[in-house]
Amino acid sequence: MEKLILSYKESLKEAKSIKKNASDRDKSLINGFIRDLQYAIEWMETGRQPGNKRGVERLAAYQRERPFDPLLMQRYFRSNAVIYPWDNYSKDNKVTSEERERIDDALSVLTAKEKEVYLMSRGHCLSYGQIANYLCISSSSVQTMIERAEKKIAKRRYDSLFCLSS
What we know:
By secondary structure, the protein is an all-alpha fold. It is 63% helix and 0% strand. The protein contains seven helices and no strands. The protein has helices spanning 2-20, 24-46, 70-80, 97-107, 112-122, 128-135, 139-159. The longest helix has 23 residues, at 24-46.
């Protein structure tokens, strides 16, 4: 990566030196080239997109990594529900026994309340406000429980030999 940054910086120096003797029309093209090089160099040096005010460690809640794929959680939740003859769930909407065991193992570290809130959020795709209304608690409590649950699940997936096969 260092060699790439050095080559970009050399190209930037060359572009700046060429710009001094260029015509007005060429200067505008070279300025665009210089801006692109500076943008790429900043991105490579900082490891984040230039102009972003937040680093990866401060992403918004909807941008953070989830311990489980949301679609997998929905399939898991549906596979635990009663299946009616009129439901048109195909085979790809069901979880495999291996996936079920991994999820059950990861969810085993949660308290009953955390598990209920987590499955309502990730299984039923309910908003924090809807969950708070159903359980007669505040939205911030729901958010806290889900954050705590996700940390526990992520730690369990990292520590457990059983969950390493993901």
